[in-house]
Amino acid sequence: MSKAPLVLLLLLTGCVSAPTYRTPEPPPAALGSFVTRPAGVDPTVSPASDWWRLFDDPALDKLIGEALAANTDLRIAEANLRRARAVATEARSTRAPGIEVTGEAAYGDIPAGGGPAATDQSWTYNANLGVAWEVDLFGRISAAIRAANADASATEAARDAVRVAVVAQTARAYSDACAFGEAIEVARSSLGTTEESLRIITAQERAGSAATFDVDRAAAQAARARAALPPLQDERQAAIFELAALLGRTPSAAPPEAAACMRAPTAHSALPVGDGAALLRRRPDVREAERRLAADAARVGVAVADLYPKIRLGGSVGYTESGSSQSGDGVTFSVGPLISWTFRNPTAARSRVAQARAGSEASLAAFDRTVLTALKEAEQALSAYGAGDERRNALQEARDRADHAYGLASMRYRAGSLSYLDVLVAQRDLLEANSELAASTQQLAAARIGLFKALGGGWDAAAPSPPALTQAPAARPTP
């Protein structure tokens, strides 16, 4: 037997090899504490998957539970996951032998014993059972299974990312509905204040103790306060309708809990934020990017294995029966390997290897980008929450002082030591302070929820743990 094919095979094996995949490491600096450390957060504790329970709001708990059960985006993600798992099951099935069963029944002329031209008409029955199994000598099947399993894990991580988004969006819509409800109450109170001032100054004008100019200024103030209501009502309705869609409901079936809420949910303790290492373990998009990278690295192995022959072991058993007495029945069988090696276009095969390597390099860059994006979003969310908290505290002080100034201006006006214009200025300052404080309350609540979303909280704690990103430094896939 010639040794040339074996020598050629060994040469090709030495020329091209598939990379060995290991989980890439993020930068060491990414694993420590966050750079931004606003007041009101606890970096020593990581957020729980059900972080919204920190608000101790039964209505919010109920709505998020309903969203996780009925949200249409989640239903799509779950269906995609089932499909990916089915693909992985199909890939694993290639390890099992293939079985082919054929049968045939025919009626016609068959040779008889009376001479070369003698025939009989009879039924002939043929049955054959074939079994073939591919020997995974060059790892093609194993690599394909690894790729399919990694794709399924990536799709599962994508499903978890959808859960994070749905939880955050539901909490945000509910919080917005509550916060705008509070803002509407403040706007109505401000409108009442301006209308009462207008009533008083109008009565004084009729009595001759106030000028028409003062009445017009008071009426303008009341009109501005009245104009502030419709935008807030529109924002609240938009939030309620958004919440209904997240719950898989029509606008007419919007949850009454949101319509009844008049205070945005707040946490009464420091917000747990953890550190960078916990963030990268928790963020589903990081896990998805790592699994996509693993899948593409495995596909390099598939492409490399396609350069080599496919070896199949198989056998068959056949049985033939004829109704003619002149023809004998019989059983046939065969067992043996089958080597298939196609040389149609080796350049195309090597091109597919190059394509797979380039895809793996792109996935590695995408993983690095996802890690950097996760860290950036967490820092931005921490900064936004800290700035929002400071701003609201300052606006609360401004509102309290404006309220005190308006009270003093009203008393001095009644005592005759101030003009009504000074009262209107103090009233305008109070109205603006009330409006700004209400808006900052809504913005702070949104920033709080945005922080938990950036930290990756919200996916089911029962889901498989993401790959360890804090292990000993590992070599990245070598294209």
In brief:
It contains eleven helices and six strands. With 479 residues, it is of the alpha+beta class. The two termini are 37 Å apart.
Describe the 3D structure.
By secondary structure, this protein is α+β, with helices and mostly antiparallel strands. It has a single domain (17-176, 259-454), classed as Outer membrane efflux proteins (OEP). It is built from eleven helices and six strands. It has a four-stranded antiparallel beta sheet with strand order 2-3-5-6, with no helix packed on it. Strands 1-4 form a two-stranded parallel ribbon. The two termini are 37 Å apart.
What share of the residues does DSSP label as strand, in percent?
5-15%
Number of domains: 1
The overall strand count is 6
Which percent bin holds the helix content? 55-70%
CATH homology superfamily name? Outer membrane efflux proteins (OEP)
Give the biggest beta sheet.
4 strands, antiparallel
CATH architecture: Up-down Bundle
Instruction: Catalogue the unreliable spans.
Output: 6-15, 463-479
The overall pLDDT, averaged over residues, is: 85
Order of helices and strands: HEHHEEHHHHEHHEEHH
Feature tags:
single chain, 479 residues, alpha+beta, Outer membrane efflux proteins (OEP), 4-stranded antiparallel β-sheet, two-stranded parallel ribbon, 11 helices, elongated
Note the topology.
Blueprint: H1 4-15, E1 41-42, H2 58-70, H3 72-93, E2 98-111, E3 119-135, H4 140-207, H5 212-227, H6 229-246, H7 256-260, E4 271-272, H8 276-282, H9 284-305, E5 310-322, E6 330-340, H10 346-415, H11 420-454
Parallel strand pairs: 1-4
Antiparallel strand pairs: 2-3, 3-5, 5-6
Helix pairs in contact: 2-4, 3-4, 4-5, 4-6, 4-9, 4-11, 5-11, 9-10, 10-11
